[in-house]
Amino acid sequence: MAEPLRAVKGMNDIFAPASGHWEWLEAKVRELMARYAYRNVRTPIVEPTALFVRGLGEVTDIVEKEMYSFEDRLNGEQLTLRPEATAGVVRAVQEHNQLYDGPKRLYYLGPMFRHERPQRGRYRQFHQVGAEALGFAGPDVDAELIALAADLWAELGLSGITLELNSLGQPNERLAHRQALIAYLEQHLDRLDEDARRRLYSNPLRVLDTKNPDLQALVEAAPKLIDYLGAASLAHFEALRALLDAQGITYRLNPRLVRGLDYYNLSVFEFVTDTLGAQGTVCAGGRYDGLLEQIGGKAAPAVGWALGMERILELLKVQGKLPPLPVPDCYAVVPQPEAMAQVLALLRPLRAAGLAVQMHGAGPEGLSSMKAQFKKADASGARYALVFGAAELAAGQVAVKPLRADATGSIQEQTLLPLAEVGQWAARLRA
């Protein structure tokens, strides 16, 4: 016997009932995106490696340590499983001239891949929902995107999620802050941990995002980026805050919020919760006005966010907000295999009428006993068992057996329904 094959560590198979909760969340996302007039975009899972090196930054953790990259054996092209979707969306918009006729509001759902240590809410194949608005320069669309995320939490019934806000300004302002930050950190080299020393010259902003408790006091006293922002950057940030205030969206200013990717400028934000421990960021994003030009397109402003579906589902579970999963309306009990052809033909119009009908199929040893079938019918959660016995079919009827109590708390008696009236019965049931 061959050795059993298993999934790659950190890449999970998802079956019912969990898959039903994924479908429910995806449906909620699609409904809300439609109300905000965001349209779906689907990009490849595999992209040129250069897209992420150029777009995310050569010294980011993702590019340095986490990407699944490989060489195409046919042509030698360097390819990467997408570690995030924004760069791919921007590449697609640029490649297909999508901004030619005006700005675009887009959203996506799908798997991403990062080679990191699997832990709660953090997997090697994980799934994101993202919203991207391209071609809009004003803080109004920043505020719209933040409101979109806040409305999603309300739609899902989630609580305890806090919005954190900061501005990274423009590249020249960040450069001035970077130089001051490096000079400050150089004065405290003996206090820096190995990770901070590694990032000191390549990506010093990330030092501010350290989780090392021994560095917190040092980081708190570091030069603050907001003190280096010019008038235009400050005006954008103040306008965004005013727009959030006008919508009643509360937030907390976090001058240490820098995000981990090089393409961000101006507004950056995170939605965080204390419920999930170290994986407390459930949604994050910001403005990335330079990314289109950075990957070879015409310069255009853009802003967006992404959320981790696994983390949202975990948060829903912890807060007891996962919905009950749908169950079939009816369970078809088929006592004799000879009736199967007729039963299959009768069930199709029921399903066409909108009923969810689960049929008891034959196993390796044929059809189960009536007792076993009724046990399965009850376990399915169906409201009714439809019994297609030989006598009933011969009389042109089906037996309808209620399996659940009605509004009065009682279970009604089994009745016989003419096969010719099954369609009308189904319509009444769906009404």
From TrEMBL:
UniProt: L-histidine binding residues: E84, A85, T86, R114, Q128, E132, R259, Y263, Y264
Keywords from the named record: Aminoacyl-tRNA synthetase, ATP-binding, Cytoplasm, Ligase, Nucleotide-binding, Protein biosynthesis
Main location (coarse class): cytoplasm
Catalytic activity: tRNA(His) + L-histidine + ATP = L-histidyl-tRNA(His) + AMP + diphosphate + H(+)
Enzyme Commission designation: 6.1.1.21
GO BP annotation list: histidyl-tRNA aminoacylation
Cell compartments where the protein resides: Cytoplasm
Stored InterPro entries: aa-tRNA-synth_II, aa-tRNA-synth_II/BPL/LPL, Anticodon-bd, Anticodon-bd_dom_sf, His-tRNA-ligase, HisRS-like_core, HisRS/HisZ
Subunit-structure text: Homodimer.
Family according to the record: Belongs to the class-II aminoacyl-tRNA synthetase family.
Entry-linked NCBIfam families: hisS
Name of the protein: Histidine--tRNA ligase
Organism this protein belongs to: Serpentinimonas raichei
Lineage of the organism: Bacteria, Pseudomonadati, Pseudomonadota, Betaproteobacteria, Burkholderiales
